[in-house]
From TrEMBL:
Predominant location: mitochondrion
Catalytic activity from the UniProt record: a 2,3-saturated acyl-[ACP] + NADP(+) = a (2E)-enoyl-[ACP] + NADPH + H(+)
Provenance organism: Quillaja saponaria
Protein name: Enoyl-[acyl-carrier-protein] reductase, mitochondrial
A single GO BP: fatty acid biosynthetic process
PANTHER family (UniProt xref): ENOYL-[ACYL-CARRIER-PROTEIN] REDUCTASE, MITOCHONDRIAL
Superkingdom of the source species: Eukaryota
C-alpha cells in the first residue's frame, strides 16, 4: 500500500524526483523483500530526502518510504524530534567534508521512542527513549531501523527537544571548554556567535565553573533584549560588533580579566574581535564559519601576542579514544538540563511545516531560535 502510494506520488513529480523515489524505494524494498521470513517490519516512514546536493529548500522533499525489516539485532525507533543544525544544511549543500551518499534522508541527531525490537535485543524495549550516539545520518524521518548499538537509552523525564539536541551543540561546548587550555575558576573566555546553542551552552557551563565570559553578537533590532537574555543565562559581558569599533576593546572589560581562550563560529570581523580580546599567549578555537568569511590574523597578533589558532570538529572528535566516554558526557549534560543549569532557546515545529522551519534555519526569515522538528 505504502509502496503504491510512493510510486503514485512520484509520478506526479519531476522526473529527477521520480528517480530519487525509485532509488530510495528500491533500496528499502530490497531490504523488505529479504525480510519476508521475518515477522517484524517497521511501519512506513515519512522522510525528508534529497537526491542532489544544492540549496536545501530546492532539493529536499517529504516522501513516504515503505516498511523495512527489523532484523534480530535491530531496533525500530519512532522519531519524536530532531533539530535542523547548520551542519545538516552544509551536508545537503554538499560543502561538508563528510556527507551521506545520495539519495539520502536529512538530519544527524534527534530523539525517538522504541517502537519494536529484533529477537536478539535485550537492553531496549518498546517505549524507551533513545538517541543515536554517536549521532548518525537520516534522523529526519518518522521511523528509523538501525542496529541496537547505535542507540543510547536516556531518561524520559526531559522535554524531548533537549534530548533531540544534546549531542551536536552542548557536547561541542563542553569539549571546547575542556580540551584546549586548562581553565580555572576566575579565568575568562571570549566568544562570537553567542546566541547560537553552542554559545548559550558555553555561557552556562563557563558560569557554572566560575569562568567569566565575554560575548559578541551581531547587530540587530532588539539587541538589548538579546543581551539581557544572555545575561540571564550567566553572560558577564555582551557586546554587539559595532560597539567594539574602538581602538582598545579591552578598555570595555571592566573587572573581567583578559580572556585566555576564545571561540569563533563566525569568521570575518567577528573572529578578529575575538582575537583582539585575547590576552598574551591566548588561544582561539574556530568551530564554525557562519559568515562564510575567512579568519584574518594580523602579523602583530603572532609576533607580539603569540596567539595560537586551533580548530574543533565534533565528527572527528567522535573517532578519538575520548569519544568512548561520549555517552557519559551526554548523560552529564542531560543532568544539567534536568537541574535547570543548562537551557537554550528552541522552537518545536510540526513535521508538516518542515519547509517553514527550514526557511527559518536558513536565515531567510531573519534570526530565529533553533528549529526542532516534532514528528
Ligand atoms: N565544529 C563542530 O564540530 C561544530 C559542532 C556544533 C556546531 N558547530 C557550528 O557552530 C555554529 C553554531 O551552531 P548552532 O547549531 O549552535 O547554531 P544555531 O543555534 O543554529 O544558531 C545559529 C547562529 O549563527 C549565527 N549566524 C547565522 N547566520 C550568520 C551570519 N551570516 N553571520 C554571522 N552569524 C550568523 C546566528 O546569529 P543570530 O542570532 O545573530 O542570527 C546564531 O548565533 C555553526 O557554525 C555550526 O556549524 C560546529
Amino acid at each position: 500500500m505504502a509502496l503504491r502510494s510512493v510510486a503514485l506520488q512520484a509520478q506526479n513529480r519531476t522526473s529527477s524526483f521520480f528517480i530519487l523515489t525509485q532509488r530510495l524505494v528500491h533500496r528499502v524494498q530490497t531490504q523488505s523483500v529479504r525480510a519476508f521470513s521475518s515477522a517484524i517490519l517497521s511501519p512506513p516512514s515519512k522522510a525528508v530526502v534529497y537526491e542532489l546536493h544544492g540549496s536545501p529548500d530546492a532539493v529536499t522533499r517529504v516522501i513516504e518510504l515503505p516498511p523495512v525489516e527489523v532484523k534480530e539485532n535491530d531496533v525500530c525507533v519512532k522519531m519524536l524530534a530532531a533539530p535542523i543544525n547548520p551542519s545538516d544544511i552544509n551536508r545537503i549543500e554538499g560543502v561538508y567534508p563528510v556527507r551521506p551518499q545520495v539519495p539520502a534522508v536529512g538530519g544527524y541527531e534527534g530523539v525517538g521512542e522504541v517502537h519494536s525490537v529484533g529477537s536478539a535485543v535485550k537492553d531496549l524495549s518498546p517505549g524507551d527513549w533513545v538517541i543515536p550516539s554517536p549521532p548518525s545520518f537520516g534522523t529526519w524521518q518518522s521511523y528509523i531501523v538501525k542496529d541496537q548499538n547505535v542507540w543510547h537509552k536516556i531518561n524520559k523525564d526531559l522535554p524531548m527537544e533537549y534530548a533531540a539536541t544534546v549531542t551536536v551543540n552542548p557536547l561541542t561546548a563542553l569539549r571546547m571548554l575542556d580540551d584546549y587550555i586548562s581553565l580555572n575558576s576566575g579565568d575568562a573566555i571570549v566568544q562570537n556567535g553567542a546566541t547560537s546553542i553552542v554559545g548559550q551552552c558555553i555561557i552556562q557551563i563557563a558560569r557554572y565553573r566560575g569562568i567569566h565570559n565575554v560575548n559578541i553578537i551581531r547587530d540587530r533590532a532588539g539587541s538589548d533584549e538579546v543581551k539581557e537574555r544572555l545575561k540571564s543565562l550567566g553572560a558577564d559581558e555582551v557586546f554587539t560588533e559595532s560597539k567594539l569599533e574602538v581602538k582598545n576593546v579591552k578598555s570595555l572589560l571592566g573587572n573581567t580579566p583578559e580572556p585566555a581562550l576564545g571561540f569563533n563560529c563566525v569568521g570575518g570581523n567577528a573572529a578578529s574581535l575575538v582575537l583582539k580580546f585575547l590576552r598574551q599567549g591566548g588561544t582561539m578555537v574556530t568551530y564554525g564559519g557562519m559568515s562564510k568569511k575567512p579568519v584574518t590574523v594580523s602579523t602583530s597578533s603572532f609576533i607580539f601576542k603569540d596567539l595560537s589558532l586551533r580548530g574543533f570538529w565534533l565528527q572527528k572528535w567522535m573517532t578519538t579514544d575520548k569519544a568512548k566516554e561520549s555517552r557519559i558526557m551526554i548523560d552529564y549534560l542531560l543532568g544539567l538540563v534536568r537541574e535547570e543549569k543548562l537551557k537554550y532557546e528552541m522552537e518545536l515545529v510540526p513535521f508538516d511545516s518542515f519547509h517553514v522551519a527550514l526557511d527559518k534555519a536558513l536565515g531567510k526569515l531573519g534570526s530565529h531560535p533553533k528549529q526542532v522538528i516534532k514528528f
